[in-house]
Amino acid sequence: MSLPLVENTQDRLSTDRLGQSMRGFEEVGSTNERAARWAAEGAPEGATVLTDYQTTGRGRHGRDWTADKGRNLLFSVVLRPTLSPDRFGLLTVAAGVAVAEAVEAFVSPHAAALKWPNDVLLEGRKTCGILLESSLAPPNTDAVVVLGVGLNVNQTDFPDALTETATSLRLTTGRSVPRPPLLARLLWALERRYDAVHAGDAASVRAAFRTRLASLGATRTLHVPGTDEALTGTVQGITKTGALRLRTADGTTTAVHAEDVTSQR
User: Which pTM value belongs to this model?
Assistant: First the structure.
């Protein structure tokens, strides 16, 4: 059975592709998994899977993503980018910018910030996580990317472990936010930024990301997955492929890729 959120969103869409094909579910394990399955069946670019509740939602490195039923936006979009795989990081960058832009229309005068590589912040707390998963068909020419977004919209309570680090649009503004117009605006913003990357204007997307980068100029320590290694330096921005530019104490500038870190502080 389709969700009312699907029809109410599609009535407001101004996109060419994103969200024009949409499937909604009251509950799924993971929207990324559903979208990947749909993509394997031939779903068009922009096909979108959304749900009111995920039982096995996840973030980067398999971390759990939990959200109250019917209060948030939990969705995944099928993308078929004509980019080299080393530039897929720009898709997460574009998505972060798009979410921030869409959110600000509903939380003004509050500003949305970005935490590299995949979080959107309000008042320093996480309100959105983005998960990009890709597959390549031999000989690595037919890319399929599933872009998952978990946005805390009207949730007011979080698990004890997250009360100091998580927030929602409602907690930020003190008012309920309607989900259909928010999702429609978000998909429009995402399509605009995604198309800019493909049209050779990735520089404008990177510049928009840098402007919102919460850690710009700050010292951060990044931890390497599976090891006790850590890299500390001053955040300079991002590279042409979406990696983080970090200047270490010896003056060297290093590019750090999202898959090379598990956490930062």
Answer: 0.92
